[in-house]
Amino acid sequence: MSTILINKKNEILKHILEIRDENDNIIKYDYLKTDFLKSKYSSTKNSIWHIFMVFNNENNSQNIIRITKKMKYRYKFKCLNCSNIQLIGSTQVLRKINKNVKYCSACVNIQDEKIERQIKSINKHYSDKNNGIEKEQIKQFSKMSNIEKINYSKEQFDDMDDDYKDMYFMSHLSSEDYIRLRDKIISFKNGNIINNKNIIYIPYFICNNQMMFSSIMYDKVNDILFKANQPMIKCDTCNTIYRGKSIEGLKNKYKIYCIDCNFTNNIFKIRPSKNCLNERVCYQSKLELKFINFCNNNHIVIRNGPKVKYIFNNNEKTYKVDFEILLNDNKYMVEIKDNHIWHKNQVKSGKWDAKESAAKSMIDNKNYYDYYFITPQNWTKYVNLIKKSIK
Known about the structure:
By secondary structure, the chain is of the alpha+beta class. The protein folds into 3 domains: 3-99, no CATH class; 112-249, no CATH class; 267-389, Trna Endonuclease, Chain: A, domain 1 (3-Layer(aba) Sandwich), CATH 3.40.1350.10. The chain has helices at 3-14, 90-99, 112-125, 135-142, 146-158, 162-168, 175-181, 259-265, 286-297, 341-349, 351-364, 379-389; strands spanning 16-20, 31-37, 48-56, 62-67, 74-78, 85-88, 185-188, 193-194, 199-206, 213-219, 224-226, 232-234, 241-243, 271-274, 280-283, 301-304, 307-312, 315-320, 323-327, 330-336, 370-374.
C-alpha cells in the first residue's frame, strides 16, 4: 500500500478533535488508526478503509474497537482546508477516509473548476451580475467566522429580488415556519444533536450551488454549523418519535403524522382525547371514545396500545392495538371493533387471525395479562368484567 495514501488517511484522523457517544459522553481512547479490509460480500473491487479506536490496558495489552456506520457517535472534525469545525456522524467520517475528502460542506465548492461551473450556472439562470457570487468573494467567505458567514449570507439574501425570495420559501422553512414546528423537532442527525435553546435555525445561508442559499442550523455554544438532516420528530397524534429525512419536508404541513398515523388517517380520522391522568389517547370511532370515557369515569388508566409485529403472506407487518389499560397492577390489551367491511375483509383473508395470534404471543411472553376484543355485541359483557376487576 502506498505510503502517501496512508499518510493522507492519517492526516484526516488527526483532524478528529473529539468523539462523543450517544449519551454525549467523551470517549477517551489512546489513538485512532486506519486499515483496509476486503469483504467478499462487497460489490466494489477496491478495499474498504476502516477506522479503529485503540485503548491501551494496564497489562500492556490493547482493546481495539472498529467504528461502524451504525454507531451513534458524534465527531468534532476540523476541516483540513479551511479549519472550520463541524459535528459529523460515523458515516461522514468513514466516507472522508475512504474518499480522501479534505473539504467540509462550507468549502467544498472553493476549488477553481467547481467555482467556474457554479458561476456559469448562476449566470445562465440569473442574468443580473449582482446575483452571482464571484470567486474571490467565495474565498473570502470561507475565511470568515461562523457568525460573519451568517450575517454576510443575510446581507446577500436581502439583496435578492422578491421573486427569488418567494420561490426560495416555497421549498424552505421561514423563521416563522420553524418556530411553529420547533417543539415537534426533538433532535437532529438521527438523535445525535438534541434540539434545545442553543440551536438556532438560519433560514438562508450561502451554499454556492444553483439555488445559492440553503437553510442551516447553528449551535451557538459550540460555534458549529450543521445541516438539519435526519430530524427526530414527535407525531401530533400518538406522540411517537420518528425519524424524518429533513425538516424541509414539514413545510406546509398543518399536522405532523408518523408513518402509522399518516396511513391510518387516510382511512379513518384520528382524534385525540385525554385519559384520567391527562395524557393523550387517540381514537378513531365513537365506540372507542365511549370506551375511553368509560375508563375515565371509573378511574382506569387507559393509554394507546402497543405496536406488535406479525407475519402475513410471508411479509412482516405491524399491528397497532387500540388501547392498553391498567387493572390491579396488570396490563391488558384492548381492541375495539365495529361492524365495518374493512374488518370483515381481514377476517375473511386470515389477516385478522395473524394479528390476534401476534397480540396473544405478548401474553405468553408475560408482557400483558390478557387481550380483550370488544364489539357492540359483547360490550356489556366486557364492561361488567372490567368493573368486577376494579379494586
